[in-house]
Structure formats: C-alpha cells, structure tokens
C-alpha cells in the first residue's frame, strides 16, 4: 500500500469522524483508541495517558514519571540550553523572582526530573529546565498583570500541575482550576496535594461551568494543540469571557497538513476569533522554541504593559 493511499485513507477517516456527533465520537474513541484521526489533542496519546494513570496509582512509577520516555514526548522535554535561555530572560526582566528559588526547587522534588546546574544569585543551583520555563511564564505574568493575588485562575492543559505550583510560590490566588484529560487529572491532584498547594480544582473539559467568569486563563501550548472543535469549546466556555489571558500558541507546519490528526486554528484564524471578544496583544515567544510560536495576551480590566 503506497504512502499516498495510506494518507488518503487517514484523511477520509478523519473527514467522516468530523461529521459525526459527539456521542458517537466518544464511543469510537473508547473502542478504537489507537486510530490517530480520533485524537482531540496532541497529548491525547495512549502511552502518555497510561503513564499518568500509573503514576497516580503507583508510588514507584510516580517516583520517576518525569524520566519516562513516553511522558517526555509530551512534557519534560525542555533542554538544558533552553533552560539557560529562560533563566537569562528572568534575570533580565524579573531578577527579584529568584529570591523564591528554594520554593521553585520544590517542583523538582517529585517525579525525578532531569536537572542541571545553573548560576543563580552567584551560586550553582540545581534546577530542571522545565521548572525554569514555568518561572519564565510567571515572570511574564508578573510583568503583564502585576499581581495574581486573589485571582481565580484557569489553566488549559495543566499537565502534572507544575505551572500552578510555581505561581503559588509567589502569589496567593483565590482558586486555580486545572483542565485536562480525565487520565491526567489524578496525577496532578496527587502531585499538588503532596506539595501542599491549596485551592486547586480539577476539571475535565466537559465539566467546565458554562457561566463561570475567571480572572485569568493560562495555556502553555495545550490550547493550540487541540483540534478546532475542542478549541471552539474552550473559546465558548472560557476564553471569550475570561478577563485576562496568556496563551502560548505553537501552531506548527505539520498542523497545516490536512491529514494531520489534530488541526488547530492558524495564527491568523485564532487572532481573528479572539479579537471579537478582547483587545489582543501578540508577543514573541522568548526564547523561541518553535519557528511559528507566539503569545496571545489580553487584559479587559487594566492596561497592558
């Protein structure tokens, strides 16, 4: 069977799937989980989901889940060099955040991540590059919105909860709602409970309250890794009504392929859609981890810096 024919069959299967109603899609996903055109997001992979489930139930797996190759295909793949680049941005723009370094290091106490030595406050400090990425996002949030104290925050695709942990090290939010796959949430619940992060709620996408208005929505790549149908649900339930937003978007060339299992909105499309509800500011991703990456921010209450 030629590659062209295989692509055509996959494309045909995806087209039929898009025409189906949601109840039928759910049944198919349960019965045929390996068919790639049934995926709703890039992280909707069986191996990743299985590691999350095992880590949430088995302490031996939890102890090293950040080292598992299947987990690292989705998360925990930031390089040492990228970690240094994130640190350089933090030092340049928000050096005072580094006084919380011991609190940030708590994020590396669980899951056995790859860590490296970085020069911080004139000392060699061991941190994972992923934790430095979360701190860099915190630095951006502080620069843009000044404070997150007493905020009701919602994160789309929170993974194991690292971003929430890092934010809680500096700000006292009113609530932090993590939205992710039902197979991922138990791991995040266990992780943040062990780190004693309070006021956190865990929701699968279908359980997001329709009329809830949040102060801030965050998504580190996850929203842009969903198909248009799922993106529309997030837009309707969260993005269009949330007062402030910080969305890192990584629309890549492979997503433009009509046979790719996940087809998100392009940069032009998502900006056009969200501009109906907010005055947007488009920022470059720093450091650049993908050629087409960018950050969407808005603030309906204050004035963007």
UniProtKB/TrEMBL annotation:
<dbReference type="InterPro" id="IPR030807">
    <property type="entry name" value="Methyltran_NanM"/>
</dbReference>
<dbReference type="GO" id="GO:0008168">
    <property type="term" value="F:methyltransferase activity"/>
</dbReference>
<keyword id="KW-0489">Methyltransferase</keyword>
<dbReference type="GO" id="GO:0032259">
    <property type="term" value="P:methylation"/>
</dbReference>
<protein>
    <submittedName>
        <fullName>Putative sugar O-methyltransferase</fullName>
    </submittedName>
</protein>
<dbReference type="InterPro" id="IPR029063">
    <property type="entry name" value="SAM-dependent_MTases_sf"/>
</dbReference>
<keyword id="KW-0808">Transferase</keyword>
């Amino acid at each position: 069977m030629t590659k062209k024919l295989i692509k055509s069959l996959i494309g045909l299967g995806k087209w039929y799937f898009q025409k189906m109603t949601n109840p039928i899609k759910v049944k198919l996903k349960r019965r045929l989980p390996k068919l790639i055109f049934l995926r709703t997001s890039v992280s909707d992979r069986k191996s990743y989901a299985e590691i999350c489930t095992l880590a949430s139930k088995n302490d031996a797996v939890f102890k090293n889940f950040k080292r598992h190759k299947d987990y690292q295909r989705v998360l925990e793949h930031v390089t040492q060099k990228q970690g240094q680049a994130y640190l350089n941005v933090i030092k340049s723009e928000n050096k005072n955040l580094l006084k919380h370094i011991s609190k940030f290091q708590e994020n590396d106490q669980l899951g056995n991540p790859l860590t490296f030595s970085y020069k911080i406050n004139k000392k060699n400090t061991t941190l994972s590059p992923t934790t430095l990425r979360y701190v860099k996002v915190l630095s951006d949030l502080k620069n843009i919105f000044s404070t997150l104290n007493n905020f009701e925050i919602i994160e789309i695709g929170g993974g194991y909860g690292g971003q929430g942990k890092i934010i809680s090290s500096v700000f006292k939010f009113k609530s932090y709602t993590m939205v992710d796959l039902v197979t991922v949430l138990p791991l995040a619940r266990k992780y943040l409970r062990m780190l004693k992060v309070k006021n956190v709620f865990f929701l699968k996408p279908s359980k997001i309250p329709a009329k809830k208005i949040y102060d801030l929505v965050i998504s580190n790549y996850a929203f842009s890794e969903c198909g248009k149908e799922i993106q529309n649900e997030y837009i309707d339930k969260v993005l269009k009504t949330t007062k402030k937003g910080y969305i890192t978007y990584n629309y890549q060339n492979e997503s433009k392929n009509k046979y790719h299992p996940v087809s998100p909105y392009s940069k032009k499309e998502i900006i056009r859609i969200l501009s109906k509800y907010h005055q947007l500011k488009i920022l470059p991703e720093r450091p650049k981890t993908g050629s087409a990456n960018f950050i969407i921010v808005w603030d309906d209450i204050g004035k963007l810096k």
